[in-house]
Amino acid sequence: MLEQRIQQNFIDSADLKYQAAQTLSKPIAQAVQAVLACVTSGGKVLACGNGGSAADAQHFSAEFVGRFERERPELAAIALTVDSSILTAIANDYDFERIFAKQVRALGQAGDVLLAITTSGNSANVLAAVEAAHEREMTVVALTGRGGGRMASVLRETDVHICVPHERTARIQEVHILAIHCICDGVDAQLLGDQESPT
Ligand SMILES: O=C(CO)[C@@H](O)[C@H](O)[C@H](O)[C@H](O)COP(=O)(O)O
Ligand SMILES: [Zn+2]
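That is the input. Now the predicted structure with D-altro-hept-2-ulose 7-phosphate docked in place:
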């Protein structure tokens, strides 16, 4: 019974990935171009999200600053989820909704990219970060699900929306991390050529 349940999770995740390959390859390619244009002109990526999506923001930043699969020059990315002093001060003195937005206003510059990750599209602190990014003339790459929620209506034409066509948070997150790896792989391919990676 339990094993059947586990197998069903694998099947559902694989099915969603097959289905999403069709619909998401275009916005993911747009995200690669947006991020590439940003980092090759001296910009940086700021990444944010809650819970599992906070982990995704950190995962992305590690692969940009450290490396993905191949050696290449370091790329600038900062996860806005990691400084406990900043996070607790803002949440304590203002409110939790502003934990990312104030960091975006402090660090963001025109031409930077905000990677905004929310499975529901409705997390208030992520939406506030998008608003702050627009104030700073940054481009937003949004990773969402469930139809995009409120995120769909706050994004601009020049932003990129990668919306996973599913309702369950776990399944959406599994495609988010695949999309993040596609962005890293696409950026490396553009920078280094598209030969196969050694690892
Ligand atoms: O990882 C999971 C569930 O799989 C949770 O930690 C999840 O990320 C949290 O409940 C988040 O607060 C959900 O926020 P969001 O994706 O709707 O923005
Ligand atoms: Zn999770």
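The chain has one domain: 27-190.
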